[in-house]
Amino acid sequence: MGSNTSTRTELQQRNRQIYEEYLAGNSLQQLADKYFLSLKSMQRIIREQRNIP
Questions:
Q1: Side-chain half-sphere of 5: how many Cα atoms within 13 Å?
Q2: In the predicted model, is pLDDT for residue 1 greater than 70?
């Protein structure tokens, strides 16, 4: 259980960082390349982060 929690926390931190870089002007393609994720994954992350209060 403990490793799941730390993994979840790390993913939340990564996704927050992606969103901040996106807001700073990086394109989805640049971020996808940097984090080795698909454009679809980037779009989902941005959409989810946008909805976090």
A1: 2
A2: no
